[in-house]
């Protein structure tokens, strides 16, 4: 694996990068911003500094699986030809480099941060919390479109949570607008789904295969995991609901069973000014 220290210059085949800084770290991976010099050597191409900043995900041991899932999912989505285009909302890996002791995935840089970063900016502000419901409604619709198509492509993401959604932007919608084309458009615009390292390709298993494994963090265990029942796509849908809960309440979703019905602990508060 190449050196990843700050200002280090990387040559990866025909790609030339300078490491800027580490912006995230997990159990098996580190995320760095890098400056891509590959195209700037061509004087006929004009690039802004924002265009040149990209992200690399450095993993130890190497992870070919995430590279496969990202590429294969985008291919299947293209073949799906849905009127609602979710492909821009699926992480694109531009290049993958694999070594004996690690791997490097090159991706675009989302300068707005994650959905969790956004929630952390408003969760302690009563005024902002009171106005988040319209955004949460639009986000819910987009995420339902997203996972409907991902599941139609026979993939389970397997790690749906607020920090695995990067912000794409905040479309301006006129108050009182009732035109679906103007409100929703023909593609997803709010967030991009990342981190496919725990994804499952259902086409690699016999039909009607189910799973019994449990995620380690209890807040992200779907009801089937909690009750020792088989699951497939339920884990993604539970993560979707949990993500919207974080957007609405600023806290992770807690669930409990009452007279055979599963409920969430969070309640809507109507702010009065």
From TrEMBL:
GO terms for biological process: meiotic sister chromatid cohesion, centromeric; mitotic spindle assembly checkpoint signaling. InterPro entries: Bub1/Mad3 (IPR015661), Kinase-like_dom_sf (IPR011009), Prot_kinase_dom (IPR000719), Ser/Thr_kinase_AS (IPR008271). This is Protein kinase domain-containing protein. It is found in: Chromosome, Centromere, Kinetochore. GO terms for cellular component: kinetochore; nucleus; protein-containing complex. Signal peptide: none annotated. Residues 17-273 form the Protein kinase domain. Gene3D superfamilies: Transferase(Phosphotransferase) domain 1. PROSITE patterns: PROTEIN_KINASE_DOM, PROTEIN_KINASE_ST. The keyword Kinase does not apply. GO terms for molecular function: ATP binding; protein kinase activity. It comes from Arion vulgaris. Keywords: Centromere, Chromosome, Kinetochore.
